[in-house]
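Help wanted!
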Amino acid sequence: MDEGALVTRALAGDQQAFAALVEAYQTPVYNLSYRMLGNAAEAEDAAQEAFIRAYLQLKTYDPAKRFSSWLFSIAAHYCIDQLRRRRFSWSTLESLTGRDSQDHGALDPEDRALNNEEGRELQRALMLLPENYRLVLILRYWRDLSYEEIMAVTRLSESALKTRLHRAREMLAEKMRGGRATPAVVQGPLLAVNRKEEGDGVLSEC
Amino acid sequence: MSCRNVSELMSLHLDGLLSSEGSAALENHLARCSTCWEHWQALQHMDQRLREAPLATPPGDFVPEVMRRISLYQGFALPAVRVPGWAILGASALAVVSSAAWVVFAAISVYWQMDTVWYLGLCALKSAGVALAVADALTLTGRSLLSELLAPTTVAGLVSLSGLSVLVLVLWLRLVTKYSAWRRAA
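Answered by r_m:
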C-alpha cells in the first residue's frame, strides 16, 4: 500500500495504517535523531516524539508533497530544539558551577552505530559542527536525499543549500583532519586527475 | 579560477552536479595547485567515510512503543477535547444575556434611584458570590437568606458573573486541550 493511502487511513483513525508508516520510517528517523544528538537514549526519545507529533499534526500534511520530507522536517526541528535546550541548560549549569565542560556531545560507548573507533571519530567530528550544517550532511549522506528533497526539509533555497553543504563539508573535513583518521592516500579517487608534479613550471593560482 | 571557487566546485562534484566544463576547470586547477589537491584528497576521504557510515538502527520495540504513547495520548485527550457545541453556545448566550441584564439593571438604577452608587456597589458586591450574599443576609440587613438571594441585584450579579465564568472556563479548556494535550503522551 502506498504512503498516500496509509496517510488517508491514518487520518480516518486507523492506527494500524500509522503503525505501518512508523515501521517504514523508523530507521531513517532514528538515524537522523541519532546523528543529530549523538546519543542513543535521546535519539530514541526524539524519534518517538517526531512520530507522535507527526500523528497529531497529520491533518496539516499536504499530500502533494513527499511524506518523508514532511516527517524529516518534524524530526529535524525537534532535534534542533533539543540541542538548543541542551546548550542552554549546559551554559546555565556552567555559569552556576563555574566549570567549563568540553563534553556536551558526549557519546555513548554502547551505541550500536559506534561499534568501532572510526565510527566514533566520525560521529565526534560531526557533533562539532553547528546543528544546521550537521543536518544537511545527514540528509545528504545517510538518506541520500536530492537537493530538492533537502530543500523541502530545511526550507533553504538552492543556492543557500549549496553554500551550506559546501561549508559543512569544509568544516567536517577540517575536524576529521584534526583527528588521526585521515590517511595520507585516498583509494580510488572520485575524480581522475593527472596531477602534475610540483615544480613543473605551472604557477599555482592559490 | 580562485581556490575559493574551486572549493565550491569540489562540493558540487561530490554530489555529481558539476557540468563537464566545471569538471574540466576543477581538474585543470587541481593539476596545478598542490594546496587544493590536498584539500580535495581530504574532502574525498571525508565523503567516502560518510558514505560508508552505517545507519543507526532503533531498538526492536520502537514501533509498539510509539503506538503505545499515541494510544496514551488518545486515552487522555478525548474526554477533555470534546466540549459539545451546544454547551459553548449555551454558555455564550448565558454570558451575553446575563451581562446585558446586569447593564440594563444598572442603567435603570441610575435613572430611578438617587443612591445610584450604593446600588451599583451592591450589585458588584453581591456578584462576588453567594458567600457575600449570605453574609449580607445574616449581618448587614437582617433580611432572610431567601429574599436576599432572590433580590434583583443579587440575581443579576450572580447570573452575570457565573455566565462569564462558564464562558471563560470553556474557552480556557479548549485552548489548553488544543495546544498542550500532546504533552500528555510523554
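OP: Thanks! One thing I noticed: Confidence is low (pLDDT under 50) at residues 76-80 of chain B.
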